[in-house]
Amino acid sequence: MERNLRKNFLNALRGNPVDMTPALSVTQTGTVELMDLTGAAWPEAHSDPEKMATLALAGYEIAGLEAVRYPYCLTVLAETMGCNVRMGTKDIQPSVLSHPFSGGPEKLEVPEALLEKGRIPTVLKATEILAARTGGENGKEETPLIAGMEGPLTVFTHLAEVKNYLIWTIKKPDYVSAFMETCTEICIEYANAFFDCGADALSMPDGGIVGSRMMPPSVLENSVKPFYERLCKKVKGPIILHICGDAGDALGTLSECGFEAISIEEKVTLKAAKEAIDGRARLIGNVSPSRTLLFGTPDAVKAEAKQCLSDGVDILAPGCGIAPRTPLANIRALVEARNEWYGEKK
């Protein structure tokens, strides 16, 4: 049966019937093997739109994942807002080195011409390139295009540092509100630019603080949820929230914000996650990216992936970003497992 991967993916995000559960990654997909095979390597692929697009396509064309996901870091907005960023190496992602608003939100505002600053033009140009190459023309299969971006909590903690965020939630809640207000508006403008350039969905890794269990439920409910709700209402297309760590206790609140789907790590069981979400969002995950994909065998990947499918995951995916040294055979095993699982059901 001929399948339209884009249609199948969007149906899965909306909770509609699908041909097969999509098997893909909503988190970063750049690996050293794919870099070597394509000639598009980090750190250049973080700043060159053609290389960024070439490496992203390799996740679909070579690794077999049923979506194209890009870029490969969570520092684009931080750099745009004044953070110094170490661009990393071939197998180390970029990281934030400075926190220019660690003293507070004074002078923090959405920059004029935000979309023209930093690496944002690079990522948007890569979006246009990828949209043209995944559109199904000339007999090619339509492939979904998933853009990754930081969420407002991540931008906040990059600008001001995590320890300040945690202190301010107790001592200076007005600071927290001011940061979240501006960071959310920055994210909305950037997110909508992705859709204008042809992306099908956004993957927003955010809220690592939530998964670390350092955030009290009252802070999540009163200081984060309203801004997530605003973001979901103002962004033009579907958003996937990815939460690192053990976010089980927070999933009920997070699923009420308006995200089409929530991506979780293996630290949360799918059964517990499904109970917490209760049908308000689709569930994505959660094959271990380190224990299984990086250090395991294809057979181990298949066993864990099939268990995820049996547990009712809506989209089969790694539980977090794919490590750069992950073997290509293990990534391919994710899709192979899905195909075998459906064959075994017949």
From TrEMBL:
Pfam families: URO-D
Listed InterPro entries: Methanogen_methyltrans, Mtase_MtaA_CmuA, UROD/MetE-like_sf, Uroporphyrinogen_deCOase
Reported cofactor(s): Zn(2+)
Lineage per the UniProt record: Archaea, Methanobacteriati, Methanobacteriota, Stenosarchaea group, Methanomicrobia
Gene source species: Methanosarcina siciliae C2J
Keywords, ordered alphabetically: Metal-binding, Methanogenesis, Methyltransferase, Transferase, Zinc
GO terms (BP aspect): methanogenesis; methylation; one-carbon metabolic process; porphyrin-containing compound biosynthetic process
Protein name, UniProt field: Methylcobamide:CoM methyltransferase MtaA
Molecular function in Gene Ontology: metal ion binding; methyltransferase activity; uroporphyrinogen decarboxylase activity
Domain Uroporphyrinogen decarboxylase (URO-D): 6-341
